[in-house]
Each structure stands twice: as structure tokens, then as C-alpha cells.
Design brief:
This protein is about 40% helix and about 20% strand. It has about 350 residues and is of the alpha+beta class. The chain has two domains: about 90 residues; about 230 residues, Bira Bifunctional Protein, Domain 2 (BirA Bifunctional Protein, domain 2, 2-Layer Sandwich). The longest helix has about 40 residues.
Length: about 350
């Protein structure tokens, strides 16, 4: 019996020393398992109690429980102390940490090439006295076709394959020319506006054709507007958008029901002098259509064609963005590919 009680005392003293010396929670836990765990030294000693006489159990039982309770309390107390110490150390470590501090070397986002080009166009045209006009992307047949001198059953409706929506007579606009009519209907004359915006066509896509792309529409209406105003405006824009005075315009007859006469506008290839892959060895790049506004369109917009005349143009901004930023596949522009977008 004496030996057993000595063993209890030994464990008690050993535990007190070890708990006292423990520097961190991991060491403390190892000590706890070794002494108080299910297979620990105290548990081993408890097994011995089973074989003692009743008298011996009466004396040693309470001692065993007392040692166990005492040590458990000691462990818990030490655990709390170590935990509070570690919190305090962490607080001290981060005391000088400034959450509002500027982090150097962080990654910067950038504006999408469309946005950059749109901002550039807006800056150029507003400096020439133009305003910005906007219109809906979901349109009625009236604004997309009829008011633009393209009545039902007119073959020109097939020139732009249309996305019709489930509401009868409604569609996704196939060009920004719809905004011409909206602007005329506002009734503020004279007019000088541009409309940058998305348009939709049900087309098979390839590297230079998309089902959704950006156009830039221009509309000017005043008394005595002529073709020379149109060409002068386009030439000024061309020099400013490429920041070069050596580029020229070429015009060819073009058919668009809403202008008369209508023209197709090409610009000299900004990348070569004698033909390259961008201009397909022709030295010219197609920009879009333009012309003097057809009298029927002025009438549809509520403007008297006997008094007012105007010009309009509609250029493909997606292809211009491809030219300026050297993008070889139109579909990349709305692919949401971060590696691609990072370059701009
Ligand atoms: C029109 O959309 C006319 N509304 C332009 C216009 C306005 C003419 C005002 C006269 C007066 P067109 O369908 O040619 O025209 O399109 C104009 C430009 O949009 C094209 O030159 C081309 O640069 C671009 N474009 C046409 N289809 C696509 C496509 N699928 N993907 C990318 N760009 C395209």
C-alpha cells in the first residue's frame, strides 16, 4: 500500500514540475496524455487499486481521485495561461499593422478595349461639337426597319439577319441607325450626335464576324448639309483616332435604304504602304457605311425634308478596336479571358 501511495505522490510531483515547465500548448497536451490520458501513468496506477483490500481502497481511492482532480485543474489553469500568452504575443506582433496601408506591387485592372475606344471617340466628337445619344438595344420593327425606309418585304431586311424576340414586332437592334429616329423625334434641331453601342446579328461567327459587336453611329441634321460636311467630319475623325495626318479616306457607292446617296467608307491601311495581311494586300480597310439621309427617314423622324438635310454614318467599332489593338480574333473581345484582357 505504501508503495502505491508513493507512486501517486511521484506522479503528482512529476506532473507539477512538467506542467510548470511547459512552454506551449502542444507540449502541455503531450504531458497531459502521458500522465492523465486513458493509457497514461495515472490510469495504469488506478488498475493496481483493483487488486488491493477494501481498507486499502478506502484510503488510496480518495487519494487517487484527489491527485487526478488536482492535476486536471492544474492542466486547465496552465492551458488558459498559455492560451492568453499566445493571444497577447499575437496582439503585440500585429500592433503596428496598418490595415489602411497602401500595398505596393498589387495588380491593377484596366479598361476594356471597347471602353477605351468609346472614350476616345466621345472625346473626339464632343470636341467637334457633337452630343452623345443613346437608344434601346431591344427595339421595335419600326425603329430598326420601317422608319429607316425598309418596309416589310423589302429585300434589305435580309441584309442583316435579325434576332427576333418572343414579343411580336420586337427584336435586338441590328444596327445603331435606330437611334437616328429616336433622336429626330426628340425635336431639337439642329442635330449633331454620335451613338456608340452594341448591335446584334444572327450570323455565324468567325475571326472577323460576331453575333454581337459595337458600332458608332453619327447623325447631323441642319439646313444646307452636304456630302462635303460628311467627308470633312470623317477625315477629321480619322486623323484624330489614329493620331496621324497621313491617312486618307476612299469612298465607293454603297446601298443603304436610309441614305441617298449612300457610300461605303474605306481608310488607308495604317499598318503598311504596299499591302499587308491586315488589309488583305489591298492597302484599304473597310470602316462602314454613310450617306445623306433619305427624305423618307427625315419624315419618319418628324422633320421636314424640304427645309432640313442631314448626313449619317455607321462604323464597325469592333473591327476598329481589332485594328488599333492588334487583336486577331473578334471573339476574344467578349471572351472574359483575363490573360487576354490583362494586355490592355
Ligand atoms: C450598317 O449597319 C449601317 N447601319 C451603317 C450606316 C449607318 C450606313 C448610317 C449609312 C448610314 P453594315 O451592315 O455595313 O451597315 O455595318 C457597318 C459595319 O459594321 C461594317 O462595315 C463592319 O465594320 C461592322 N460589322 C458588320 N457586321 C459585323 C459582324 N458580324 N461582326 C463585326 N462587325 C460587323
Amino acid at each position: 500500500m505504501k508503495n502505491v501511495s508513493i507512486e501517486f505522490e511521484k506522479i503528482r510531483n512529476q506532473a507539477k514540475t512538467l506542467i510548470n515547465q511547459a512552454q506551449n500548448l502542444t507540449t502541455l497536451e503531450t504531458i497531459r496524455v502521458d500522465l492523465l490520458g486513458r493509457k497514461g501513468k495515472l490510469a495504469d496506477l488506478m488498475v493496481v487499486l483493483k487488486d488491493l483490500s477494501i481498507e486499502e481502497k478506502r484510503t488510496l481511492g480518495p487519494l487517487a481521485n484527489q491527485v487526478k482532480t488536482e492535476l486536471e485543474e492544474l492542466f486547465q489553469q496552465k492551458k488558459n495561461n498559455l492560451f492568453n500568452d499566445s493571444l497577447r504575443q499575437e496582439e503585440e506582433h500585429y500592433a503596428g499593422f496598418d490595415v489602411t496601408a497602401y500595398k505596393t506591387g498589387h495588380k491593377k485592372g484596366s479598361l476594356h478595349p471597347y471602353t477605351q475606344l468609346t472614350q476616345k471617340n466621345i472625346a473626339i466628337f464632343t470636341s467637334l461639337g457633337f452630343k452623345i445619344s443613346d437608344g434601346p438595344e431591344i427595339e421595335t420593327e419600326f425603329y430598326n426597319f420601317e422608319a429607316l425606309n425598309i418596309p416589310e418585304s423589302h429585300p434589305a431586311r435580309d441584309m442583316q439577319d435579325t434576332f427576333w424576340i418572343d414579343v411580336p414586332g420586337m427584336l435586338l437592334r441590328t444596327h445603331t441607325s435606330t437611334v437616328q429616329i429616336h433622336t429626330m423625334q426628340e425635336g431639337n434641331l439642329p442635330i449633331a450626335v454620335i451613338t456608340p453601342g452594341r448591335v446584334y446579328r444572327q450570323e455565324a461567327t468567325d475571326a472577323s464576324h460576331d453575333f454581337m459587336f459595337q458600332q458608332l453611329e453619327g447623325l447631323v441634321i441642319d439646313k444646307n448639309i452636304s456630302m462635303s460636311h460628311l467627308l470633312g467630319t470623317l477625315k477629321t475623325w480619322l486623323h484624330l483616332i489614329f493620331n496621324r495626318n497621313d491617312l486618307s479616306l476612299r469612298i465607293r457607292p454603297g446601298y443603304f435604304p436610309f441614305v441617298e446617296p449612300g457610300i461605303e467608307v474605306d481608310v488607308t491601311c495604317p499598318f503598311c504602304t504596299s499591302g499587308c495581311s491586315t488589309c488583305k494586300k489591298t492597302g484599304w480597310i473597310e470602316m462602314g457605311g454613310a450617306g445623306l439621309i433619305h427624305p423618307n427617314v427625315l419624315k419618319a423622324g418628324g422633320i421636314n425634308p424640304e427645309i432640313y438635310r442631314g448626313f449619317a454614318f455607321g462604323f464597325g467599332m469592333t473591327r476598329l478596336a481589332m485594328l488599333i489593338y492588334g487583336i486577331n480574333d473578334i471573339r476574344l473581345l467578349h471572351s472574359n479571358d483575363k490573360e487576354f484582357l490583362k494586355q490592355f
